[in-house]
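Reopening this one. Same input as before:
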Amino acid sequence: MSESTGLPIIVIPMGDPNGIGPEIAAKALADASLYSLCRPLVVGDAWIMARTISDCHPSLYLHTVESPETGLYQPGFINLIDLAHADLADLVPGTVQALAGQYAFDYIEKSVRLALSGQADALATTPINKESLRAAQVPYIGHTEILAGLAAVEDPLTLFETNGLRVFFLTRHVSLRQACDLVTRERVRNGIRRCLDALGRLGVAGGTLAVAGLNPHSGEHGLFGDEEMTAVAPAVADCQAEGLPVVGPVSADSVFHQARIGRYAAVLSLYHDQGHIATKTLDFERTISLTLGLPFLRTSVDHGTALDIAGKGIASPVSMVEAIRLAAQYAPHYRR
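Same output, byte for byte:
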């Protein structure tokens, strides 16, 4: 906690200023209930946020601050650290621009500095645009890579959570063919250990981790593939021998439902879409991404900059509200 008697400070970098980040941040912070959970603080540009508030919630008051401790954390106020960029009038909402990519990176960098210095307890991030980052020659492809680079951390771990269902990923942005090749005994064993360690660092006590099967019906003893026999089951047995609370492989057509109703604390998904489909079908807007293994907790909406609707005032803040709520829930317990 940033202050012994205070609620956690959750920093919200404003995201790509040409996207819906400023809008969903403003709309989320119009939800008075968040102020009973945390002290939310936006990092961005006051000129952009003032324009956004005028369009979306003119009753809100924008309060610019120099540091987190000077914020007025009460309903009706949006506290913002103003980076006061030049050339803001040159930004074109709904477009890919190098200027927008650079400013989005600057917001994240400042937010990370606040977290690393102990002035903030967690980040709840809004969307950034990979094409704008590339146009700005930012040397990172996305949020996770930026955060890992700025915090000097290798291979942070991603967790999805929605409505109590928690899903980790053994592999993510690789082809399905590559993902199958990456399901090895050693990799699954290490993945299990990391997932259980991450749950402990979030303060999730007790419960069992389930490892999803890769093939239909977990391979049916080799009828539909042998990865479960050669890699997944042996890795689970290795970890069980260490006393770790893990089971698997559990057929992917049922494991997520079983976790949703409380049989498992979390699921280790073996490839990207296996876990994404499960969480996003359950509740697309409330699927929140958590980045673990950093010196600070980071939650994020799991949608993009939505350039097609940017500036139109119709973006939903549901994911942003949920990201802030989860950051507030886990921040007091989080240990790197």
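So the earlier flakiness isn't reproducible anymore. For the record, The first strand starts at residue 9 and ends at 13.
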